[in-house]
């Protein structure tokens, strides 16, 4: 399943999460845990960059002419304005990495849950 222009990255990972829930997708728990930890590190970096972009002052220094004001507005909007601004792009990356991490977490959470259930069953019924 490859993401297509019609299928956003977040939707792609949501579909993978559904496939994992249905038992159609498998990943070794150690690999999933490693991927999840890498997601943590990447999320930290993305969040730091988002905070830096949001803390940037409005662009200035282009003069008082209309063209200077328009240029300042353009650069300010590119940093933290509309839907294609740096802040919006960083936030969309954060959202996708969180979706990815949710998929990875399913694999070692389920394994841990199964191990605990099996252990409880052995304690209750004894080994076979």
Structural account:
- The chain is mainly alpha-helical and 128 residues long.
- The chain contains 4 helices and no strands.
- The longest helix is centred in the last third of the chain and has 40 residues, at 86-125.
- The chain is elongated and about 85 Å long.
Key terms for this structure?
0% strand; 128 residues; mainly alpha
Helix and strand content put the structural class at mainly alpha
- Point out poorly predicted stretches: none
Distance between the termini: 41 Å
Q: What series of H and E elements makes up the topology?
A: HHHH
Number of strands: 0
**Residue-averaged pLDDT, rounded?**
83
- The portion of residues assigned to helices is over 70%
- Computed over alpha carbons, the radius of gyration is 22 Å
Note the beta-strand portion: under 5%
Gross geometry: elongated
| Main beta sheet strand tally, sense and closure | none
DSSP summary: helix tally: 4
Give a short overview.
The chain has 128 residues and is mainly α. 74% of the residues lie in helices and 0% in strands.
